[in-house]
Design goal:
By secondary structure, this protein is mostly beta strands. The chain folds into two domains: about 180 residues, Immunoglobulin-like (Sandwich), CATH 2.60.40.1730; about 180 residues, Sandwich (Immunoglobulin-like), CATH 2.60.40.1730. The chain contains three helices and 29 strands. It has an eight-stranded mixed sheet with strand order 19-18-22-16-15-25-28-27, with no helix packed on it. It has a seven-stranded mixed sheet with strand order 4-7-2-1-10-13-12, with no helix packed on it. Strands 8-9-14-11 form a four-stranded antiparallel sheet, with no helix packed on it. Strand 8 and strand 9 form a beta hairpin.
Length: about 425
């Protein structure tokens, strides 16, 4: 039996533990955010938001999404993007977010969507979510003199705005891609490579007549040349860059090795698909490949095949296979209906023609990038001296210099970097 004094001490300790936030819990981090705003009838002053985001804090079992002040929220649901299942959620005040330890800067008077994850976020993994909600916000979306305006500072780096049906675009103040959706609505999208939010403003007006349908994708083209291309891209499908998820990071090794370690992420959405095929770029050699599913942390089976082995396994690359063809295959359980998988593939490439020493004091990196987001980390002991394609530059925690390229256009960018040895 406890003495009365020990009882008091014990009760006090328990009370403190219960009332103290979970300070051992790491601060909430997130990744891969993309937001689609669908403007509803102008009279509603409302827009539906599809927010794709990944919880990235290892071990986290909850995720908090702050409601923008001034908006009246209507939450339709939250979904696990790996399984497609609905998740438990609730609207809470900021004190709940503070008490969790995940959001130490939470505003007590603000509202948050608190999401209970189906499984803890794995190490170096992701808890991918889709938050479906509608905001009523007359300050952000309104009509005046027949013109609708959507004006809002958007902090997420990748965004899309869909106009109401039968509306045509009058103006947009930030460089944007524009597509016609299958239902005839216009969709604008953009990527923000900077560190500050974009004060995005879109104006539109009712169009006369019915909206055109999106052009069906075809493999034919006009025979009339309008530029250096032999034919015009009359039936080309415009890929929306903002919604793409294929990131890649290059870690340059000592230039004398001509090698770089890389990882790239890929979201597989096709039902029944059970493999990822990575054709090694001509002139490069791949080694030490590995892969895992970021949703679960599961390590995946990886094979490297060459030439005739590829055909013997019945793998169709959609292109001719030669003796020089090198293929890295990642195998996983087939994707089921309404499910997706997020893969991370790692490997080392060696390429004497694109990464080499120009002199004892200078290296050259010359490589074409096709993905939306690309990052290059320079080797230890080297400084950046030249960079051809605009990039943001940062210093990594270990002192290495990194460059991040955001390619918001279809097609490749030809990245050329020169670095000099530090004394």
């Amino acid at each position: 039996m406890f003495s009365d004094r020990l009882k008091v001490v014990f009760v006090t300790i328990v009370a403190v533990l219960i009332s103290t936030p979970l300070l051992a819990q790491s601060q909430q981090t997130q990744a891969d955010a993309f937001t689609r705003y669908e403007l509803l009838a102008p009279s509603s002053e409302s827009f539906r938001i599809y927010y794709y985001v990944s919880a990235a804090t290892e071990g986290a079992t909850r995720f908090y999404n702050q409601i923008r002040p001034g908006s009246e929220p209507d939450v339709h649901g939250v979904y696990d993007r790996m399984t497609g299942d609905a998740l438990e959620w609730s609207l809470v005040k900021g004190d709940d977010a503070l008490a969790s330890g995940l959001v130490p800067n939470a505003v007590e008077t603000s509202e948050y969507i608190r999401v209970d994850l189906d499984r803890p976020v794995p190490a170096r993994g992701r808890g991918r979510l889709l938050i479906d909600k509608t905001y009523k916000d007359p300050e952000s979306y309104f009509a005046e003199d027949g013109i609708i305006t959507f004006t809002r500072t958007l902090g997420v780096k990748r965004n899309a705005v869909v106009l109401p049906k039968n509306y045509e675009l009058v103006s947009v103040n930030y460089p944007s891609q524009i597509k016609t959706r299958e239902d005839g609505r216009l969709e604008l999208s953009f990527i923000n490579p900077g560190t500050a939010g974009v004060p995005y403003e879109v104006k539109a007006k009712p169009m006369s007549g019915n909206a055109p349908k999106a052009r069906p994708i075809a493999l034919t083209a006009s025979g009339t040349a309008t530029s250096s291309r032999p034919i015009s891209r009359i039936d080309a499908d415009i890929p929306q860059r903002a919604s793409q998820t294929r990131d890649i990071v290059y870690f340059l090794q000592d230039p004398t090795t001509h090698s770089f370690r890389l990882y790239h992420d890929y979201e597989e959405t096709r039902e029944g698909m059970d493999r990822y095929l990575n054709v090694v770029r001509p002139g490069s050699r791949a080694s030490n490949p590995s892969a895992k599913q970021l949703d679960t942390g599961e390590n995946l089976k990886v094979e490297t095949l060459h030439g005739a082995e590829i055909s013997e396994r019945g793998i169709d690359l959609g292109e001719p296979v030669t003796d020089a063809t090198e293929l890295v295959v990642i195998w996983f359980d087939p994707v089921e209906t309404d499910q997706t998988k997020l893969l991370r593939i790692e490997e080392t490439y060696t390429d004497e023609s694109r990464y080499f020493l120009v002199s004892d004091q200078e290296f050259l990196w010359d490589r074409s990038f096709g993905r939306l987001r690309n990052k290059v980390v320079l080797p230890n002991g080297w400084r950046l001296s030249e960079n051809a394609i605009p990039a943001t530059v940062a210093t990594e925690p270990d002192g290495r210099i990194s460059l991040t390229y955001v390619n918001d256009r279809p097609g490749n960018i030809d990245v050329l970097i020169r670095g000099h040895r530090r004394p």
